[in-house]
């Protein structure tokens, strides 16, 4: 941030320090530090993407190490258990032979059965534990992948919004809004701005359908009602237009200042109800 501030400070130094023919600052139409701000934002996005990739690699490494460690523990525990069982078998067999309980064959069969059951129980227990660990790691991996996808989509949408701000023709803006909606179909802001661009090229009914779609997704979004009111006004449906204007003003008081500036409301200027909505200066 300090580098960005220093760059902006340099841009604000009068050009008379570097030239015999001074350039009037009043002739500059746009802020000179805007490219630097955009560059800073892009660098921050790039850094965020790199950190996310590093996190994914670290999690994958930890998952692999956890699986290997769990397998080693299971094998060591099973080996130790089998050795202990054989020691017990040997001691029990010797004792039973001496006491004359059973024949050696009966003892061997009985011990084999018990040993098989014990090993099967231990194996099933560790398999169950390993499956639980694997399920948890899989869920975490899905969360990480989903988070990475959301970050990528957010970066793409941000870039498209910046591109839309640079486009001059309404047709090109509509194309950019379509790309945003392909990434995020429920982006009501993109729907609303697309409806505004459609009104500019005369596609009133298309704009009306898009505004209705935006309201269906979020009935508390003021600009969606505003754009639908513009479409109704262009269709000379003044009652519907005034109803949506009132709703938009209820949701956002800041829109009152735009009532007389909105060119799509020009045919409403003579309407008495419309005049009552216009704030008095």
Automatic annotation (TrEMBL):
Taxonomy, superkingdom: Bacteria
Signal peptide from the UniProt entry: 1-19
Keyword Cytoplasm included in the entry's annotation: no
Keyword Repeat: yes
Keywords, ordered alphabetically: Repeat, Signal, TPR repeat
PANTHER family cross-referenced by the UniProt entry: CELLULOSE SYNTHASE OPERON PROTEIN C, TPR REPEAT-CONTAINING PROTEIN MJ0263
Protein's UniProt name: Uncharacterized protein
The organism of origin for this protein: Bizionia paragorgiae
